[in-house]
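Protocol step 4 of 6: structure prediction from sequence.
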Amino acid sequence: MLSEKMQTSATRTRYQWQVENQPPAIMLIHYNKAGREVGRKPVNVAINGLPKVLTGNAQCERLWRVLTNTALQVEGFKIRAKYIAADSDTPNSGAVCRFGYSRGSGFDYVIDRGQVIFNG
């Protein structure tokens, strides 16, 4: 569910960035199912309209908090956030933020596409 929220928030960031004439940052507002505001997070935006992520695990941790409006925990379990640089030997390989438990499944957030990909 949080992976879906991350994907949706990245898309919302791009739309809001376009509507606001492409500023360097926006204020992403999070709502609950009843439509009430539950949080606001500033988002630095890259030139493609997606959240800007610099290198490093701390940047991925920040991305998680900004896009999901939650701490790096799910049901009491800590979520790992790892930055993985693009592989220059692999075509169409972009840098990713990898999120998951210490054991088990997780997902990658492809930074330059704003896309979530499950990695089993």
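Step 5 (inspection) to follow. Residues 66 and 97 are 13 Å apart (CA to CA).
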